[in-house]
Specification:
single chain, 384 residues, alpha+beta, GMP Synthetase, Chain A, domain 3, 4 domains, four-stranded antiparallel beta sheet, 12 helices, elongated, disordered N terminus
Length: 384
């Protein structure tokens, strides 16, 4: 099997030996580290395993035939109709936790694992997966001719090559009954259409986020909660769509991670109102949540005498203003925030011209050595 075929199926491994993929424990999308892998099985160990397919698609299957299965084994599993080929991604006690997290009921109605793959199964699987890209491109052309408002994002063939799943994105309801008939006549296979969202598509494709890490939707996240612009406002972020949007074009899911912490911290802040001083009215600008500072400007529409004062000082001034009085100044000596540098520029590493100085020294030294060498050679010539 080609290396890129494993990558498409969430595996970074390159070798297939005896129906087993090498390094199966940390190379697949939505991977779960099985810390109980080396523990012996007990009576309570479930006979259910998690099997992964292309990209982020995973499902749970019952080991009804009591096969000796380990993570990384390729197996033939029950499908409708026929069978599918997948790679075991999780076994043991943690499977029940995964089922509970994903809301899969443990009621005995799961599909079963038929057997470990045979060489003929792998050949059929390889032949089917090689057709996925060209069929996806041809399907896009057909849907464009039919003027359907949808985007075909991915095509996944079943292991026996008799069925294909077409993943599509659409903003509105799409009548694709005619499209299914055309695709069935064109490719001579069973067609299944599955609608996915932009976040799910980003998870299937994968990539690196602006944080430098692998996308959350491709590495561990399976449930997508809505993200609103109010979340960005609570965190005092600039409303820049290019910075707030992820690779899917939607607001980043990670904006929700610290939402509760910010909301809890904002409860201690006073209302965003202007403060009256003897020098004029100070208008609210912004806040620094975790430093506990509030910034004010003496002009409502521009930055004039911008001042940062602690929350306690703001509350104190508001109480004085409620009594109809004005304060002399916003800051007091006690409320003056101190700025501490985390490092010192000891060796001049922050200087813009540091490379120029180094180069000039090297050039002088080189020219000096060269002149000394020439003088030495000339003296030797005179002696001879």
């Amino acid at each position: 099997m080609k290396n890129e075929d494993y990558t498409l199926r969430g595996c970074a491994s390159e070798i297939l030996k005896g129906g087993k993929v090498c390094n199966p424990h940390s190379c697949n999308k939505l991977n779960v580290f099985n810390e109980l892998r080396n523990y012996p099985e007990s009576v309570n160990t479930p006979d259910i395993v998690e099997v992964r397919f292309k990209n982020t698609r995973k499902a749970f299957y019952k080991n009804a035939n009591n096969l000796s299965l380990t993570e990384g084994d390729m197996v033939a599993v029950e499908a409708s109709p026929g069978h599918d080929i997948g790679i075991i991604s999780l076994t043991g006690e943690l499977v029940l936790n995964q089922m509970k997290r994903k809301g899969v009921p443990y009621d005995g109605k799961l599909r079963v694992i038929y057997r470990k793959v045979k060489p003929i199964d792998v050949e059929k699987w390889e032949a089917a997966t090689e057709l996925e890209d060209q069929i996806m491109l041809k399907t896009r052309q057909i849907s464009k001719k039919m003027k359907l408002d949808m985007k075909i994002g991915d095509v996944e063939f079943q292991g026996d090559g008799t069925k294909a799943i077409f993943y599509y994105i659409a903003d509105k309801r799409v009548d694709f009954r005619e499209l299914i008939r055309k695709l069935a006549d064109e490719f001579k296979i069973r067609i299944e259409m599955r609608q996915i969202g932009a976040r799910q598509e980003a998870g299937r494709i994968g990539g690196i986020g602006s944080c430098g890490r692998e996308l959350c939707c491709a590495s561990w996240m399976s449930d997508f909660s809505s993200v609103s612009t109010d979340t960005a406002r609570d965190q005092q972020l600039s409303m820049n769509p290019q910075k707030l949007a992820g690779q899917c074009g939607k607001l980043k899911c990670c904006l929700n991670y610290e939402k509760e912490s910010y909301i809890e911290a904002l409860r201690d802040f006073p209302p965003k109102t202007a403060l009256e001083t003897e020098g004029g009215t100070a208008y609210f600008m912004k806040i620094d949540v975790f430093k506990g500072l509030v910034w004010y400007s003496f002009n409502k529409h521009s930055l004039v005498n911008v001042t940062a004062i602690p929350v306690s000082r703001v509350i104190e001034i508001l109480e004085i203003n409620k009594k109809g009085k004005k304060v002399d100044k916003l800051k007091t000596d006690e409320s003056e925030p101190t700025i501490k540098f985390d490092y010192d520029d000891v060796v001049g590493q922050e200087s813009i011209t540091r490379f120029d100085r180094t180069k000039s020294k090297k050039r002088k030294k080189h020219s000096k050595n060269k002149s000394n060498f020439n003088k030495k050679n000339s003296k030797e010539d005179e002696k001879t």
